[in-house]
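Q: How would the structure tokens look for this protein?
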Amino acid sequence: MIARIRSLPWPVLIGISLLMIHGFVNSTLSFFYQDEAAYAGFGLTMIQTDNWLIPEFEWSSIHRKPPLYFWLIASSYSLFGVSEFTMRLPALLSLIGLYATLWFWGKRILGPRIAGWSVLVLSTSLFVPLLGIMALVDAPLLLMSTLAACCVYTVLQSPHNHWRAIFGFWACISAGVLLKGPPIIIFGGM
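A: Here is the predicted structure in token form.
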């Protein structure tokens, strides 16, 4: 049995463990962080009022952010229904995208063994998996920052014919601004 499990590729093992852990936790845990409840309210209000341009939710103006994360939550609600799991789905998918990005770029740069271990260590750390459980805007922002860094790496490694990487960098920076605003501008300015 152990030999059969070891023969599976790293992404499959990590994907199965993530879906099992996060799927169980996200479907059984109610909101426990005030930002989560506010973000859920913003997404639900977008659906109820058909106002997807200006995020509104009563008594939550301190939690207002740029609209992209609320759009993701509202889209998840529209596709799969309103629940704690569907509210946390954009954050979970962002983490899976982050791990896939780390696997893909790590494999290219350092080889599959080190890339696999890197993804395993990151996905079992204390802080990063919590971003998918608590459904904060930080998981998609971390994904956008990582993708932007990979685009910078691509431009630095191959200065010829790098227009796609430059476009990808600015698309990630733009998405980061629409997610949280200034934090990713600091990264882009560096």
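The chain is about 75% helix and 0% strand.

The mean pLDDT is 82.

Upvote if useful.
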